[in-house]
């Protein structure tokens, strides 16, 4: 019986069991979409990424939460590229182009001054849409009050590849009080009922960071909270330049995961090229462990579901 290997890498940290865990599947020959979904459900991480051939890029990635497929995932992309370098599959390349359902994603890799491999991922062009729902219902779903919201800034849906609701919070202490009622989200987010909620603030635990956040997942995804979120950090950088301090370029460090004991950091760079914002995120990753699953087990889950 053929065995499928799933590697566990943590993104946005060089310390195992911090940052954001990603499932990495490199050998995907003959895996169906349903099998990929079943693997992601079995593994249970916020996302599992699958390495596939591409006719238009160096390779293709598909991303699955335990509940459904997503178009793009920042931390799983960082983890996958790190893993492919570590396994000497693309270690001869400093730049690669990845095909995703969100479009083509340029990637650069380099080592920092202490020798850590850093992966820089270009995000999709930022988009924002107004939130037209009830702020009272929104804050109740996070176990907060309306007074916790920073009303000087807008609550908006934002995307640099994956949509989320960006919620500005006044004080850092509020993040410890957050207890999300994820099942309420679709009724509150009526314009985009399947998106996540991403509260953030400008107070941070670390003096080296510029923004702090938590990321509460859609109930359709099969998880409650994502420890350190790449694409949401990218759109936070675009939000910063759009609504907080408009300027031509900005480098930010976003921290996340402290409330889960999973501290990680994402470097976000926003620059304007031809008067259009270009957003990149940079981070490292670390190997943690691996598991093997009989393909028959995954097929057995399919048969059971059918």
TrEMBL record:
Active-site residues per Swiss-Prot or TrEMBL entry: 47
Keyword Isomerase set for record: yes
A GO term for molecular function: isomerase activity
N-terminal signal peptide: none
Domain of life (superkingdom): Bacteria
Gene3D superfamilies (UniProt xref): Diaminopimelate Epimerase, Chain A, domain 1
Keywords, sorted A to Z: Isomerase
GO CC term (a single one): cytoplasm
Family stated for the protein in its record: Belongs to the PhzF family.
Protein name: PhzF family phenazine biosynthesis isomerase
